[in-house]
Structures are given as C-alpha cells and as structure tokens.
Amino acid sequence: MKRPPSDSNTPPFEKTANKKPRNAQVQTRSEAVVGIKMAIIHRRHPDVKLDQTQVDMIQVKLLIDVDANPQGETQPQFLYSKFALGIFWITCANESSKVWLMRTVSGLGELWEGAELTVVDSKDLPKRPRVIVRIPGTYEVTTVMTRLRIQNPELNTTDWSVMSHKVNEKEQTLALSIDPNAFKVLTRSNFKAFWGLGRVIFRTLKDEKRKPEDESTAG
To answer: For the segment 66-81, what is each residue's pLDDT rounded down to a tens digit?
Structure first.
C-alpha cells in the first residue's frame, strides 16, 4: 500500500532536521546575556535629576576613558545605555565592566557646577523619605534649616530638599525630602525635633492619617 502524499513540499527528514532538541532550546535561553543594570545618578537623586546635556557630557567622558583603557587589561563591555527620568542607565556585560564603570564615574570630578555623581545597582536606586513639618513663624527657609540643624545635630538638613513651602500669617508648612539617616533619627524621637524654645512635629507623606499628639511650639 502506498503512503499518502505529505501536505508539505518539505521532505519528512528535513522537517526532523530543522527541529531543535528541547534541551538545546532551554540551554540557549539560560545562556542568554542579561547583564548588570547600573544607574548613574546625582548623589541627591531623586531630588536632583540629570538632564540631557549633563548625560551627554558624562557619555563623552566615558567614551574617552573606554578608548584610553590600556591594552592587555580587561576591556569594559556594555550591552546598551539610555537616559530616562533623570537617570543615565548603563547595562554592563559583566562584573569587571561594572567595577570599571564605578571606578571611572567616581573619578570624573566636577563636570559641571554642583555635579555629584554616583553609580548604583538598579535595585539599590535611592528612594528618599518625605515628611511634612509645621513651623511657627514666617522665617526664611534657610533660617529654618539652620535652626533645626543647630538644635538637632543628628539632622543633616544641608542634605534636605524643599518640595513645597506654604506660608500664612502665623506659621509655615514645609514638605521635605530628607536623607534616610535623618528619617531614622526622627523615627527614634517619635518624629519630634527641637525648635526654638519648644519642639516641632514631623509626619510622613506616606501616612497622611498620622495624628501625633499636640505639643506647644515656640518661635
């Protein structure tokens, strides 16, 4: 009895040859290069973000250093890079390239006024705590930050950023982005800080329902 003709013009043995063994497909996926995703950011990110001009300057310097890397040493290799949301993302092909990138960025110096660059792993991208505080009086913001720092030495207010500032006749309310260490200090003090002849009370932006006990404040 004759075998019925195949629906395809491809001979049966060629079909079999074109199929990859299942275990070979798994191996290909497992060997795919994922890379190490790194973020070049300003030290005070996310309060201070990079712009396109600054990223262009960083890129030029990195390329100069890539070309100048001595022969015979392990050469830096990267999979791709992009600029988005104030971050210069670079994916390193291997661990040695990550080390090279961190060392090189730390040695770039002040590419522009106020440039304070750092490199972090994508999973370690900083997220600064945000708080609100009500200050009696209508002092200048610099005066507020200075007084808080003087009376509370553990609070490094020079590393704080003002996100919003509302003033009325008797008081002012500041929304602040603060460093993680200051947040720990405030947590230990039940979110109270010395101010003038009394204390002021902070609350976190993530906990709008927080109702700290009332305490008199002095200017």
So the answer is: 999 888 788 999 999 9
